[in-house]
Amino acid sequence: MENNSSLNILGEDIAAGESREINFHVAKLHTRTRVDVPVIINRSKKPGPVILFTAGIHGDEVNGVEIVRQLISKGINRPKKGTIICIPVLNIFGFLNKARELPDGRDLNRVFPGSKSGSLASQVAYKLMHEIIPQVDFIIDHHTGGAGRFNAPQIRIVKEVPKLKKWAKAYGAPFVVYSKKIPKSFRSACDKHNIPILLFEGGKSYHIDAQVTNTGVNGAKRILNHLGMLGSKFKVSLPKKEIIFIEESKWIRAKSSGLFRATIKLNSKVEKNTILGYITDAYGKFNQSVKADCKGYILNINEDPIVYKGDALFRCSTKFNL
Fold it and tell me: Which sequence spans correspond to the domains of the chain?
C-alpha cells in the first residue's frame, strides 16, 4: 500500500496525482532503431494500492493487449485512490515480429526472474522484476490460448490462497481455474516476492474477440471497484452467471486425422458421450463424431480445421464446483 510520497519506476519519480508515460528500454533492433516498452502510470492524490495490468508477454497474444488498451483509452486506469500501472505489450519484440517469442527464440514467460547479463528475454525479465515489480501490490496479467486453441474467458489462480479466490470472485469471469505455477514463469516469480497475481486467459493468438475483451474490461472494473479505486463515472455490472471453479480438467483428443469441425459452443456444459464435433476427410468417404468422454464444461476449443490423430480438440473440466 503506497503513501503520498513519490513512486520510483525505472529511475523516474512520479508524484501523487501525476500521470506519466515512461519507457522501459532494454535493447535496440539490429538496425540500431531504439525499441521501447511504454509504461503508463496514473496516480491519485489519495493513497491506495499499486495495481499493475500487463499483457503481451507473448507477442502473438493480442486480445490481452486490446483489453489493457481499452482500460487506458476509456480512462478506467485513472484511479480514485492509489496507482494504476499499465503495460499493454511486455514483449514488444515479439509483437513487432508477430511472434510468440523474442528474437532470441526464447519464451519470455519461461525465463523469470531473469538475468542482468543473460539472453535478451532474460534481461527483459530481470529489468521488469527489479525496476517495476517491487513497487507493485497486485497484478492482473492477460493471456490467450495458443496454436489456434480458443480459451473460454477464465481467471487462473493457485489453490488454497483465500485472497486470490476472493479477488477471482470479484473479477467475475465465467470460470476460475485452479492451476499450478509454471517454473520460471512471471506468475511464479511474482509469487516468490509475495505479490499476488490473477492470470486472465481468453481467446486465441492473433485474434481479438469482443466477448473476451468485454469480459476482461468488465473484470478489471469489478476488481478496481472492489478495491475502491474505480472512478465514479464508471458503472459496474454483475456477472451474468454463477462463477464455476474448475479443480481438474483434461484434453479430448482426435482419434483420427482429417478435417475438423466443432459443433458445441465454448462454455457449454456437456454430459458424457455428448457429440462435440466431427472429423471428416477431404473426399466425402469418412465422417467420425467426436464425443465427450466426461461430464463437465468446455473450456477450450481447437479452431484449426485440419487436425492429426492425437491433437488436442477440446479441454473439458472433470472436477468443478460453484
Answer: 7-226, 248-321
End-to-end CA distance of the chain: 32
Residue 73, C-alpha cell as written in the block: 483509452
- Find the mean pLDDT for residues 113-131: 96
Secondary structure E strands in the chain: 7-9, 12-14, 19-28, 34-43, 50-54, 83-87, 138-145, 149-157, 175-178, 197-204, 244-253, 258-262, 269-270, 275-280, 287-291, 296-302, 306-307, 312-321
Question: Which amino acid, one-letter code, is at 58?
Answer: H
- 31 dihedral zone (left: phi>0; alpha: psi -120 to 50; beta): alpha
Is residue 79 within 8 A of residue 231, CB to CB? The reply is: yes
**Residues β-bridged to residue 299:** none
Nearest to 177 by CA among 148, 223, 143, 209: 143
In this predicted model, what pLDDT tens digit does every residue of 169-202 receive, in sequence order? 999 999 999 999 999 999 999 999 999 999 999 9
Listed residue (238, 260, 154) closest to 203, CA to CA: 154
Give ∠ CA 37-153-278 in degrees, rounded to 5: 120
The CATH class for the domain spanning 7-226 reads alpha beta
Cell of 47: 493513497
pLDDT exceeds 90 at position 1? no
Kindly provide the b/e burial profile for residues 266-297, where b requires at least 16 CB atoms within 10 angstroms of the residue's own CB: bbbebeeebebbbbeeeeeeeeeebebebebb
Query: Is the Cβ–Cβ distance between 62 and 89 less than 8 Å?
Result: no
| Beta strands 244-253; 258-262: pairing state | unpaired
Domain covering 248-321 assigned CATH 2.40.50.100 in the classification:
yes
Distance separating alpha carbons of residues 23 and 14, to the nearest angstrom:
13
Residue 180 is given by DSSP the state: P
Q: Contact 197/190 with Cβ under 8 angstroms?
A: yes
Q: Are 315 and 300 in contact (CB under 8 A)?
A: yes
